[in-house]
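Practice problem. Given the sequence and the SMILES for magnesium ion, write out the predicted structure.
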Amino acid sequence: MAGLRLHGVKKSFGEVPVIRGIDLDIIDGEFCVFVGPSGCGKSTLLRMIAGLEEMTEGLITIGDRDVTWLPPARRGISMVFQSYALYPHMTVAQNIAFGLKMAKLPKAEIDARTGKAAKLLQLTELLSRRPAQLSGGQRQRVAIGRAIVREPDVFLFDEPLSNLDAALRVQMRIEISKLHNDLKATMIYVTHDQVEAMTMADKIVVLNAGMIAQVGSPLELYHRPNNLFVATFIGSPKMNLIEGRVEEVVNGNARIQLASGSMIEVPTRGTTVAMGPVTLGVRPEHLLVGKTGAVNSFKGKVQLSEHLGGETMLYVSAPDIEQCVIKADGLAPQRAGDEITVELAPQTCHLFDANGQAIVNGSLI
Ligand SMILES: Nc1ncnc2c1ncn2[C@@H]1O[C@H](COP(=O)(O)OP(=O)(O)OP(=O)(O)O)[C@@H](O)[C@H]1O
Ligand SMILES: [Mg+2]
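Answer key:
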C-alpha cells in the first residue's frame, strides 16, 4: 500500500495545454475522486499516473518511489476502465488470472489469488463462465477482479460504472466502497456521477480546464466551496445564483439589494465585505415558499413543479433571477403559474466576488 504525490504535473498535446500544473497529495488508503466537466483532463491525469500517457513536466511518486519514468507495469498500479475489455473466448477465471499468467507467476499462486478475488467479488460460482454469459455488473466485477489479483499499491478507476443501468450502478457503487474498506488500498476514481462522488470519496478533487479548482471532503466542497465553479459543480440541482449589490454592512450583516429592490441580509461572519456587486449563492434546499412580505425574500412565479415523491422541485422565475430551484416538500401544493414569495435562510447564503471567489460561505451551524 502507498500514497501518491503529483508535483507540478503538466501535459500538452502538441501546443495545446491540457493539464496545466497539478500538485496533489493522496494519502495511503484514501479514496480520492476526480470530478470535472467533460474534457477537463480527468482521464489524461489518470493515464499519466498509470504511465499510459507521457507527462510534459512534473513528478509522480507512489509511496517513496519516483515513478515518473517507470513503465506502467512497474508502477504498482491497476486500472479499471469504463469498457471492461474482457477476453470473450476466456472464462472468468482465465480473464482474472491473465495478467498473472503473463507475469509468469507460479500456478498455485495464480489460483490462490484468483480464488480470493473471486470470493471477495462474489464471482466464485461464475468462474467457468465466459463474458457473454454474464450481466453488465458481473462483467465489471471481473474487470475489477483482474485489477485486484495484481495486488497493486494504487487502484485507478475511470468511470467504471457508466455503462451500467441505474440499479446496478448503485449496487456496484456499494460494492466498490466495501472493497475499499476490505483492501484498504489507495484508490483514485473518476466519475461524472454526483452521488458516486459524494458517497464514495474521502477526498474529492474538482478539476476545471486542467487545473484544480478545489480539493476537500465531500461535505467541505458542498458547504464551503472556494469559488463559483465548485459551488455550481457540486450539488444537484445546482446552487442558485442571484446577482445583487452590497449597499451597507450593519451589525455583521451585509445588506444586499436585488434587481427588484428586495433586500437580503447575509451574515458576514467577520469577513470584510466590500460595497458593490456581489453574487449570492443559495442551495435549493435553503429556499422555501414563504409568507407574503417575509424578510429576506423576493417574489417569483412558478414555471414548473416536479413531484419526485419524497420532494418537489419548484422552478421559479423572478425579476431577480431568471430561474431558481426550490427543493420543497414532497406534497408541495404549488403549481405552474402560481405567484409565490421565495424566502431565503440568510445564514445558509454564500457570497462571491466579481472574480467568482467566495467571500462568505453559508453554514447551518
Ligand atoms: N491523444 C490526444 N491528442 C490530443 N488531444 C487529446 C488527446 N487525448 C485527450 N485530448 C484532449 O485533452 C482534453 C482532456 O481530455 P480527457 O480525456 O482527459 O478529458 P476528461 O476530463 O476525461 O473528459 P470526459 O469526462 O469526457 O471523459 C480534451 O480536450 C481532449 O480533447
Ligand atoms: Mg475521461
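Check your answer against the key. Residues 42-43 surround magnesium ion (ligand 2) (CB under 6 Å).
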